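User: Please fill in residues for this 472-position structure.
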């Protein structure tokens, strides 16, 4: 830990103020872009300039003087950005600027600068700045890139909405109640409505909330259900929206197939309720799950219904959402990487390929009364890939039916077990021998059955080997 004092983070209002940039290379171009965004009057002095800076000069968005910068150029400016390739020139300009009362930022010497330019993430009027005080600029850039990808664009809309109603809150609510009011708005259902892309609806709700708060009315508890697809297992396959809602929830209903590493990403204060949903072993019946979601939401909870894969691909998500809609409970749906896509990709088996499969079919392999009522003639065709979900128990039935309806005994087929996780295994074979191969193994994790000529490509395209043994 450094004992040196830290810089003071501030945001400068530069609209209409003159700023000098000495140098016109790549660093200068980045500085100029942000200065123009702040409304500064920019002067650039440099013998040569990048095409981007030349274009801005031609468009009269800045003044470019094609010559070397001199010490007597700095007077009269608010800021100086010394970005030339010559440290001696930058030092001389900095000395002259300080003598004239102008603050300096040297691109070649952060320690010799009066101020620093942080990495920023911008969402409309909302700006997040990151600085290492000049010690690790690459690290700040990396963190900025991560925030850029994580921070939803709609946060800019949320900031704009808050600004739109700021004066109304100031005039209608006493000072002591404004902070708690804005906390409820910006970390509650109204904010979530904005982040879901329904800004007009949020505007109406915010106006009503201000009226209610001004009248001294209690704000009723408003719950919501987030139906989130968690993907096939690897936490890195979560969407940004899924992760955000997982952090917001105060109750989570999760299936057996949800990996512990995924549950670790849920808000640590949230109540966790295991609702089962594994083949022939249901902790709660589907009807009870539906009733529980409705009751929790009506009690004001933010309920996360976390499902493996994609909730609308053999996940019974449609049934759950229909129950919520009928009960008038607000909900959001976040799609996930379905097991078919995730497991096939991690197994190096493309589901479509111009030489082998021009279509792909997703089918449930779940037995009903010991049988599978499927359109076997449609499934037993060359030129396509068939993916069976929940097909381990019915594997012998599936393979026999496909051969009976026309596929060859040596037609490729594979089981992907615990796909996309550190425990992933692949059992590859043919329709004729795959059931026996699977029976010889101990299989406890979720499985996916892929049938088609694309299975052969695993031999050359397989890339994910958690145990370090290609082909294992």
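Assistant: Residues filled in for all 472 positions:
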């Amino acid at each position: 830990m450094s004992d040196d004092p830290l810089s003071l983070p501030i945001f400068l209002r530069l609209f209409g103020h003159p700023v000098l940039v000495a140098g016109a290379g790549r660093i200068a171009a980045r500085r100029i872009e942000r200065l123009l965004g702040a409304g500064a009057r920019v002067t650039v002095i440099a013998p040569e300039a990048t095409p981007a800076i030349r274009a801005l000069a031609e468009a009269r968005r800045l003044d470019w003087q094609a010559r070397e910068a001199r010490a007597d150029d700095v007077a009269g400016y608010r800021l100086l950005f010394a970005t030339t390739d010559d440290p001696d020139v930058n030092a001389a300009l900095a000395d002259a600027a300080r003598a004239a009362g102008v603050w300096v930022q040297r691109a070649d010497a952060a320690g010799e600068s009066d101020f620093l330019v942080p990495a920023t993430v911008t969402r409309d009027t909302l700006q997040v700045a990151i600085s290492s005080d000049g010690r690790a600029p690459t690290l700040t850039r990396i963190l900025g890139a991560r925030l850029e990808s994580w921070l939803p664009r709609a946060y800019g809309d949320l900031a704009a909405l808050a600004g739109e109603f700021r004066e109304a809150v100031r005039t209608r609510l006493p000072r002591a109640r404004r902070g708690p009011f804005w906390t409820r708005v910006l970390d509650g259902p109204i904010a979530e409505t904005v982040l879901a892309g329904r800004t007009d609806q949020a505007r109406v709700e915010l106006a009503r909330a201000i009226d209610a708060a001004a009248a001294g009315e209690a704000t009723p508890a408003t719950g919501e259900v987030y139906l989130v697809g968690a993907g096939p297992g690897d936490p890195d396959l979560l969407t940004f929206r899924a992760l955000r809602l997982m952090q917001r929830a105060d109750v989570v209903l999760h299936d057996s197939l949800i990996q512990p590493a995924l549950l670790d990403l849920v808000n640590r204060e949230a109540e966790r309720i295991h609702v089962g949903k594994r083949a022939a072993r249901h902790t709660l019946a589907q009807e009870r799950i539906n009733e529980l979601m409705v009751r929790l939401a009506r009690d004001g909870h933010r309920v996360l219904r976390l499902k493996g894969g994609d909730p609308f691909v053999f996940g019974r998500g449609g049934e759950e959402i229909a129950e919520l809609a009928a009960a008038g409970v607000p909900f959001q749906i976040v799609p996930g990487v379905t097991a078919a896509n995730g497991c096939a990709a991690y197994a190096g088996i493309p589901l479509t390929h111009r030489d082998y499969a021009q279509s792909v079919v997703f089918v449930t392999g779940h037995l009903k009364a010991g049988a599978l009522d499927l359109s076997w003639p449609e499934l037993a065709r060359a030129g396509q890939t068939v993916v069976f979900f929940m097909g381990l128990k019915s594997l012998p039935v599936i393979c026999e039916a496909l051969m009976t309806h026309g596929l060859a005994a040596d037609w490729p087929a594979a089981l992907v077990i615990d796909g996309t996780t550190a425990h992933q295994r692949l059992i590859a074979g043919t329709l004729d021998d795959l059931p026996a191969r699977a029976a010889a193994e101990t299989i406890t994790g979720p499985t996916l059955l892929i049938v088609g000529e694309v299975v052969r490509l695993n031999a050359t395209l397989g890339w994910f080997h958690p145990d370090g043994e290609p082909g294992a």
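For context: Residues 340-461 form a domain with the Methyltransferase, Cobalt-precorrin-4 Transmethylase; Domain 2 fold (CATH 3.30.950.10).
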